[in-house]
């Protein structure tokens, strides 16, 4: 008797939009957006690329979808008297999430149709700001200013060293190319960094504090 005939064949999991987007998210994180294609997403799921089109319109739809998945990982602010604390927690969470997905900071700035997670992210942010006296327009401008800081800092952190030791090594290399007589202030600051001084300040929180304190005067 053929024992193999008695074995149940495990059914293949049906394709769904969520399965496709989760696979695409993994590929984007591992290989970057340049390597992302319908063919590769299909191959990672064990299907032909054409099978994806029953659930996904095109690559742009995939990009919008995985960007929305990332937005769903960010801690949402809640209306609270301590709106600065809520905005700080939200901003720090967004920065951490975007660092986990190195491609996402640029995609957050693209005009993708907002998905449910992105709409919840935007609505919670506006709601938190409007609850403490910002007008809808002010809240939107404030959100945009904060987000520009998050995205810009994240992109810089992804391409430049951030640890004090790495900064110190880079500063020592750059110091030799900065004439002290022509650029005295730049030379002085680079010399400090080369000696390991002043790198302990968290630039992200420093800039965020300046923004939040400045916005406080608009209410």
Description:
- By secondary structure, the chain is mainly alpha-helical.
- Helices cover 63% and strands 0% of the residues.
- The chain has 2 domains: 13-56, Arc Repressor Mutant, subunit A (Orthogonal Bundle); 71-216, Tetracycline Repressor, domain 2.
- Helix 7 crosses helix 8.
- The model is unreliable at 4-9 (pLDDT under 50).
- Residues 14-74 form the HTH tetR-type domain.
- InterPro entries: Homeodomain-like_sf, HTH-type_TetR-like_transc_reg, HTH_TetR, Repressor_TetR_C, Tet_transcr_reg_TetR, Tet_transcr_reg_TetR-rel_C_sf.
Please state the structural category: mainly alpha
Mean pLDDT: 91
Overall structural domain count: 2
Order of helices and strands: HHHHHHHHHHH
Q: Within the CATH hierarchy, at the fold level, what is the topology of the largest domain?
A: Tetracycline Repressor, domain 2
CATH superfamily of the largest domain: Tetracycline Repressor, domain 2
Main β sheet profile: none
- Quickly count the helices: 11
Low-confidence stretches: 4-9
Count every beta strand, where a strand is a DSSP E run of 2 or more residues: 0
- Percent in helix: 55-70%
CATH architecture label of the largest domain? Orthogonal Bundle
The gyration radius over C-alpha positions equals 23 Å
Q: Beta-sheet strand percentage?
A: under 5%
According to CATH, what is the class of the largest domain? Mainly Alpha
Assign an overall shape.
Answer: flat
Cα separation of the termini: 81 Å
